[in-house]
Amino acid sequence: MKDNVQVTIVGSSNVDITALMNRLPGPGETVLADSYQLSPGGKGANQALAAALAGAHTEFIGAVGNDSHAQVALAQLEEAGVDLARVATVSEPTGVAIIQVDAAAENSIAVVSGANSTVTAEAVSAAGELHGILVLQGEIPASGITTAMDLATDRVVLNLAPVIELDREYLLKADPLVVNEHEAALILQQLDRSESVSTESEPVIAEKLMAHGLSSVLITLGANGCLVAQRHGEQHSLEQLPAVKVKAVDTTGAGDAFTGAVAARLAQGDSLVQAAEFAGKFAALTVQAHGAQASYPRSLENL
Fold first, then answer.
1. Which residue in 46, 68, 69, 225 has its CB near the most CB atoms, within 10 A?
2. Which alpha helices (DSSP H) does the chain contain, by range?
3. Using one digit for the tens of pLDDT, what is the confidence trace for 20-51?
4. Distance between CA atoms of 24 and 252, rounded to whole angstroms?
5. Cα–Cα distance measured from residue 52 to residue 33, given in angstroms and rounded to the nearest whole number
6. Residue 294 and residue 50 in contact, taking contact as beta carbons nearer than 8 Å
7. Which entry of 83, 102, 175, 256 is annotated as an active-site residue?
8. Left (φ > 0), alpha (ψ -120 to 50) or beta: where does 205 sit?
9. pTM of this prediction?
10. Known catalytic residue: 256?
């Protein structure tokens, strides 16, 4: 498949344990959940599935454990035709995400990295060449992210979630940087070398990120849509795209769906604005069902 790869994701693969409840517990509080689900997740795997379902030939590079969770973690990727040949099986257990979702579709997530912690510079280098558009997230070690960037042969889509420390030169390789409003402020703090996190509006933060030299930025705003900033020579533009109005029941994995769909459409020749518009519609479909990968649309007929 490698000759046809349009999108390569280097990243995390988890099994999600999702508890559904009326409201999220506060510190030290126990809340009875209505039910729970065991499902595949991890930001890297989610984005790989989204890219494949959005029409790109996709490869996923990561790691799972030699345990029963590994099959759960990779099953939907395999079913969607994602190339898994360079997924390593390691002695660490498959990563696990413990997710709580309330009746308003808000969630809280704790991640146990497990095998994902082995996706280091050494592991990425050993995997060999990286083909097509490269997609990265913050759920693998920083050394794995930067080495993948060094090996990239095409543009890099960086979804730095969670936000981890990266050298400035690597942050500026993102094209686009895909973040939500909270992550955008934290990355600006890194670039500014500031002691405090900006509380300015998202458009102002986007402008400041671009002023640092980024080629393009996508800031997702949930129900308020998405900000698209991109450079045009010495100038840059800023445009806000509206959200698709739907009734959300679970937002888990929606950001990953957006990122994977953006990469897929960029690989197919869309402009950044076109890719973001498509990705917004793709992600809107996912929040209308529970779970991450299970909620991703298997058909593009409604897009």
1. 46
2. 43-53, 68-79, 121-127, 142-151, 168-171, 181-192, 202-211, 254-267, 272-286
3. 999 999 999 999 999 998 889 999 999 999 99
4. 14
5. 33
6. no
7. 256
8. alpha
9. 0.90
10. yes
Just give the CATH number of 2-295. Answer: 3.40.1190.20
| Per-position DSSP letters for 267-293, written without gaps between them | HTT--HHHHHHHHHHHHHHHTTSSSSG
Q: How far apart are CA 187 and CA 299, in angstroms?
A: 35
Residue appearing with tokens 């979630």: 161
**Residue in 209, 203, 199, 300 with CA at minimum distance from that of residue 257:** 300
Q: Distance between terminal CA atoms of the chain?
A: 27
Residue 110, pLDDT > 50, answer yes
pLDDT at 109: 83
> What pLDDT, in 10s, does the model give residues 171-219?
999 999 999 999 999 999 999 999 999 999 999 999 999 999 999 999 9
- Helix, coil or strand: residue 93: coil
Query: What is the sign of the dihedral through the CA atoms of 113, 119, 122 and 126?
Result: positive
* CA-atom Rg of the chain in angstroms: 18
The whole-angstrom separation of Cα 194 and Cα 204 is 16
Per residue in 132-155, pLDDT tens? 999 999 999 999 999 999 999 999
Alpha carbon separation from 64 to 84, 127, 217 (Å, rounded) = 11, 15, 31
